[in-house]
Amino acid sequence: MTYLIPATLKAISIATLFVLSSVSVSAHAKTIIDDFSDKQNTLFGTPRMSLTDVSAGGKTSANTLVENGVIKVTGDIFPARGQPGWSSLVLPLAAQGQMHDASQHSGIKLMVKVNQGSLSLSANSAEVTNFDYHAAQVFVKADGQFHEVNIPFNSMKRMWSKQTPLKPQTLNSLSIVAYSLQKASYDFELRNVSFY
Question: How confident is the model at residue 18 (pLDDT cuts 50, 70, 90)?
Fold first, then answer.
């Protein structure tokens, strides 16, 4: 019996290490949202979407190209009269109507290169029904280099609605948005989008 106890403990320890390493890998996979290794889907298995202001009367164009773990998004912004123009790269975190709980994280991290134009990032919550999602500007020097940008959840604000705290447990997607108040071109690249 004295030999069986250490053997049993060893087996339990090995099994525990296996479970812990599986949890660690799973948690890491849920931290990275998209590394653009797939031509169409995020690492959450959801297809990326590209939306523009065409539905609001604008004539903005959007072109996307995924190559070598980088997505390049380019186009021309033609706003509708009296409105800002925009083009949005949407990264769904869950199936439509579902939510992803990101409450164990502090914010969103981008590896981004801005060649031209202005960008913002929005965290799209299922609780927001008027499309005025919590957002923050992405400040990056247009120097042809990738930069790491960390945007804390608590720094993200709504534009025109009453300010409410973002609830990270209610997220269903993220949007990287090129925008302008007048006709303009935009050109940016993303290498990685993750929670931190």
Answer: very low
pLDDT tier for residue 96 given thresholds of 50, 70 and 90? confident
Number of neighbouring beta carbons within 10 Å of residue 31: 15
Cβ contacts of residue 88 below 8 Å, gap of 6+? Answer: 50, 51, 52, 175, 176, 177, 178
Which amino acid appears at position 68 of this protein? N
pLDDT band (50, 70, 90) for residue 97: confident
User: How many CB atoms are located within 10 Å of the residue 72 CB?
Assistant: 16
Contacts 24+ apart (CB under 8 A), 53-56: 53/77, 53/79, 53/80, 53/83, 53/84, 53/85, 53/86, 53/87, 56/80, 56/83
- For the stretch 33-65, pLDDT in tens is 999 999 999 999 999 999 999 989 999 999 999
Answer yes or no: are the C-beta atoms of 48 and 91 closer than 8 Å: yes
| Alpha carbons 136 and 139: distance in angstroms, whole number | 9
Q: Is 39 exposed, middle or buried (0-12, 13-18, 19+ CB in 10 A)?
A: exposed
